[in-house]
Amino acid sequence: MEYEEPKFFHVMQYAGAADGDVIDMVSGNPDWEPPATLREALREYADLPSAEFQYPPSEGLLELREAIAERRNVDADRVVVTNGTGEANYLAIARAFERDAGDEALLMDPVYPYYPGKTDMLGGESTLVPTERDGGLDVDAIREAASEDTALIVLNTPNNPTGAVYDLDAVREVVAVADAVDALVMVDEVYDHFDLTGEFESALMLDSDRVIVTSGFSKSMAITGFRVGYGIFPEAHVGDAKTRHMLVNVAGARPSQYAVHHALAETPPSYYAEARELLADRVDAFTDALDAAGAEYTRPEGAFYVLARFEGFPGTMENVKRLIDEAGVAGMPGDAFGTARGEWIRFALVTPRAAEAAERLADYFGD
Ligand SMILES: Cc1ncc(COP(=O)(O)O)c(C=O)c1O
């Protein structure tokens, strides 16, 4: 299988080897604490009888699936606990292609690079569909691109890399397009707790038998290393997703699921609200500095990222390296995210040094 190593690794390596002090705004690892109850549950787990160290049910611990189902207001049978949202995305994309309803996935441009990677791995064809300048959905463009060959439409909201949060009515229109061409719609909601309004509207509210929602706890509980995510599949597809999950993984990791279950039950809404406040403050500090640097950007409505464009300094790999060497700030080249934002650089705000990085950028680009 041909697969180009993600640019992410390349930039991280370059930044790691750089001489000076470099602020990492590349990775999407939250830098704040997980819920306190998650740490407690992990300690408790270490002393459980060894029977609790054996295989969990393949589709996930029942109590965790039930807790997810209750929060998402769906039947627990529809929930498959996966190794991160990444696996849930894989299951959804695989399911779309095995239906013999076409080979094409419509992906929004700019795109989270693992979607075209997985589409390709699964024998599908990616078509990039432009979004609005602010990252919002262009439903007409999706309608125009959709055809009999379209098996899947992939949405991600709140969005990486644009920070857009899609309007639920626009998502509803996309589902209608999918209906017309017999496609599934995968909605990756891994940043659901990071809709900065705190009022995220999930695609599950549409109650459509074409919609697969994927999400996970990597971001919301600041535990990207735990690998706990989930997919909520329509009844007609959940059986196949569970089978594929079992054949690929046997099961997920029990200690991670145990800890997440406890944290889910015992973490107050204020935990998530505080993380949003922290991010909102960083967005303010960072965008103020972008103003001072004369950059173009869209203010994120959600997720962790800001895309910025500096006049005369396109977001190529070469310039990203220059920024590491000369300004001490590492971002991601825009062309890692499809074709729409080759001029732009993505900065992840999950560093306590976001304000300092902003000052460095303002100094570097400012007059
Ligand atoms: C849009 C999107 N989906 C999925 C993932 C992967 O999430 P997980 O760690 O739950 O597999 C990421 C991680 O950055 C992401 O940005």
UniProtKB/TrEMBL annotation:
EC numbers, comma separated: 2.6.1.-
GO molecular function: pyridoxal phosphate binding; transaminase activity
Domain Aminotransferase class I/classII large stretches: 21-353
Cofactor: pyridoxal 5'-phosphate
Signal peptide, first to last residue: none
Gene Ontology biological process terms, A to Z: amino acid metabolic process
Keyword set, alphabetical order: Aminotransferase, Pyridoxal phosphate, Transferase
Pfam families: Aminotran_1_2
Family label: Belongs to the class-I pyridoxal-phosphate-dependent aminotransferase family.
UniProt protein name: Aminotransferase
Organism from which the protein derives: Halorubrum lacusprofundi (strain ATCC 49239 / DSM 5036 / JCM 8891 / ACAM 34)
Lineage: Archaea, Methanobacteriati, Methanobacteriota, Stenosarchaea group, Halobacteria
